[in-house]
Q: What sequence folds into this?
C-alpha cells in the first residue's frame, strides 16, 4: 500500500483519514478471514473443547459476564412486554422470561440439548406455580442443528453466491436459503414477529460442534421481516463475538451500521426498516478473495 506519491515539484500526497480507515478495515477483515479459514480447516473438536450442558457445570468462559448480562436484561426490559426469541438455554437466559413481563409478553427458547430443554421447562413450570406470570407464556423448543462450526466459510461463500440468501422479502418460513433454519424451527417460531432476538446457541465451541451460522442468519432474516412491516426496530443480540464465526456472520447479516452497543463479548444490533431491498447491509461485505 503506497502511503504517498511524488507530485509536481517533488511534493507528496498523504492518505486522507477516510483512506486510512478503509485500509485498517480491510486489514482487520483479512485477519478475521484468515482466522475463519483456520477454524474451518481445523480437526474436529475433542472432548476438552466441548461445551457441556448449560445447567450442569458450564465453563465460566461460556457464561454471560455480569456486564453482558446487564446489557441483555436492559435490552429486554426496554421492550417488555414483547415477543422474545432466544437461541440457547441457560439459567441466565431463562431468567429473561421474568424480565419480559406484562400482558402480551411471549418468550421462546431454542436448544439442541434435551438436558437443557428439560431443565428450562422445570424452571419455567416452577415460575407458573409462583407469581411469575411471564413464565406462563414461555415455550422451549428442542431442535437439531445440521451444520458444524467448521463449515462456516464454505456455507458463507455459498450464501454470497445464492440469490435465495439475499434479504428476504416475504415470510422466512418460505426462504430457500440453505442458512435459514426452515426445516429446524417450528412454524410457530418462523411465522411470529419478534421484537427481540438473542443468539447464544448452539454451542459453536469447536469445528465439530453445531455452529451458529444458521441461527444468526435466521435471526437477521426474522428481524428484517418484522421491521419491514413498518414496526419498531428489532433488537438482536449476539454473544461470543470474540469467536470468528459469530463475529463474521454478525458483520455479514446484522451489519456494522446497525450496531447499537457492545459489552465484552456481546453485540447489540438495532435492525430497522429501510435500506437496499435485496441485501442485508447497506455496506457490502469486504471482498477478501
A:
Amino acid at each position: 500500500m503506497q502511503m504517498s506519491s511524488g507530485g509536481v515539484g517533488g511534493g507528496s500526497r498523504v492518505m486522507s483519514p477516510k483512506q486510512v480507515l478503509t485500509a485498517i478495515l480491510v486489514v482487520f477483515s483479512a485477519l478475521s478471514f484468515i482466522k475463519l479459514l483456520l477454524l474451518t480447516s481445523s480437526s474436529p473438536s475433542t472432548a476438552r473443547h466441548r461445551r457441556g450442558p448449560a445447567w450442569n457445570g458450564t465453563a465460566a468462559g461460556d457464561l454471560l459476564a455480569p456486564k453482558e448480562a446487564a446489557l441483555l436484561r436492559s435490552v429486554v426490559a426496554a421492550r417488555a412486554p414483547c415477543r422474545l426469541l432466544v437461541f440457547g438455554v441457560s439459567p441466565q437466559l431463562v431468567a429473561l422470561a421474568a424480565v419480559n413481563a406484562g400482558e402480551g409478553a411471549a418468550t421462546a427458547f431454542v436448544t439442541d440439548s434435551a438436558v437443557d430443554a428439560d431443565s428450562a421447562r422445570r424452571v419455567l413450570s416452577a415460575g407458573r406455580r409462583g407469581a411469575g406470570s411471564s413464565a406462563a407464556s414461555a415455550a422451549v423448543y428442542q431442535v437439531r442443528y445440521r451444520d458444524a462450526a467448521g463449515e462456516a466459510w464454505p456455507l458463507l461463500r455459498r450464501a454470497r453466491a445464492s440469490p435465495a440468501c439475499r434479504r428476504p422479502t416475504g415470510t422466512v418460513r418460505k426462504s430457500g436459503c440453505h442458512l435459514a433454519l426452515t426445516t429446524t424451527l417450528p412454524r410457530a417460531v418462523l411465522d411470529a414477529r419478534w421484537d427481540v432476538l438473542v443468539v447464544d446457541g448452539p454451542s459453536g465451541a469447536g469445528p465439530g460442534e453445531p455452529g451458529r451460522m444458521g441461527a444468526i442468519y435466521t435471526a437477521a432474516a426474522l428481524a428484517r421481516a418484522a421491521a419491514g412491516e413498518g414496526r419498531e426496530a428489532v433488537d438482536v443480540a449476539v454473544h461470543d463475538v470474540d469467536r470468528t464465526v459469530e463475529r463474521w456472520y454478525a458483520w455479514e447479516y446484522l451489519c456494522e451500521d446497525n450496531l447499537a452497543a457492545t459489552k465484552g463479548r456481546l453485540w447489540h444490533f438495532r435492525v430497522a426498516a429501510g435500506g437496499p431491498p435485496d441485501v442485508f447491509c447497506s455496506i457490502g461485505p469486504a471482498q477478501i478473495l
